């Protein structure tokens, strides 16, 4: 059960959602999703909090990726009237999204990292329910999550996403960090973690 649930979390961790794209934002904004703005300060705060909880650097670009995806899912969930309860969020955050029980406790200790974790959990739940699933404990939950990502992709394609150039460019449903220069490129450690998550996802499908 644990391996399958972690693989569900990998769906959220490695597959981002699709939105529109534009050239940039006004000063102080990291991204704007529809009418919702994510400030550079919020991205920095989230990056530091998550990094401290995980005990390693967590790039601003990774934080922004997740924050944009979470906001897209929240907007689609609201449009589709998809219910997500606090109990469902707590369950998914602990059992499907957090990489370990220890990491879960540390992520819960800071308001910024806790909000990020909870929003990732809500995104996972919305994704599963979009495909007709009930939640993370569905026997075919991972398949529903994959199907839900396609539905979420279609539902969010008309939501305009603009990203500050310093973070990269929102392209093909993800933040392309290589566009903004060497400081924004994926580190070897981040790449290794991403590939490990993808491997866990594939294992869960097998």
Could you characterize the architecture of this molecule?
The model is unreliable at 1-6, 13-23 and 179-191 (pLDDT under 50). It contains eight helices and five strands. With 206 residues, it is mostly helical. It is globular and about 40 Å long. It has one domain (2-205). It has a three-stranded antiparallel sheet with strand order 2-1-3. It has a two-stranded antiparallel sheet with strand order 4-5. Helix 1 (2-14) packs across helix 8. The two termini are 14 Å apart. The longest helix is centred in the middle third of the chain and has 20 residues, at 60-79. The chain has helices at 2-14, 40-54, 60-79, 86-97, 101-108, 111-130, 141-156, 188-205; strands at 29-33, 36-39, 161-163, 169-171, 174-176. Residues 171-206 are annotated as: Disordered.
Task: Give a nutshell description of this structure.
The chain contains 8 helices and 5 strands, in the order αββααααααβββα.
């Amino acid at each position: 059960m644990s391996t399958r649930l972690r693989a569900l979390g990998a769906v959220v961790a490695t597959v981002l959602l699709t939105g529109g794209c534009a050239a940039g934002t006004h000063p102080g904004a990291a991204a704007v999703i529809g009418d919702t703005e994510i400030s550079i300060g919020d991205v920095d705060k989230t990056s530091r909090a998550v990094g401290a909880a995980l005990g390693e650097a967590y790039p601003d670009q990774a934080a922004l990726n997740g924050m944009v995806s979470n906001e897209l899912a929240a907007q689609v969930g609201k449009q589709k009237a998809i219910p997500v309860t606090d109990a469902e969020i707590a369950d998914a955050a602990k059992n499907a999204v957090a990489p370990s029980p220890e990491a879960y406790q540390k992520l819960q200790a800071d308001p910024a990292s806790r909000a990020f974790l909870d929003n990732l959990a809500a995104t996972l739940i919305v994704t599963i329910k979009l495909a007709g699933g009930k939640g993370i404990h569905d026997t075919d939950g991972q398949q529903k999550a994959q199907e839900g990502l396609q539905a979420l992709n279609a539902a969010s394609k008309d939501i305009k996403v603009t990203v500050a150039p310093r973070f990269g460019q929102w392209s093909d449903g993800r933040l392309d960090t290589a566009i903004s220069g060497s400081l924004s490129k994926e580190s070897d450690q981040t790449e290794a973690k991403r590939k490990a998550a993808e491997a866990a996802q594939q294992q869960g499908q097998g």
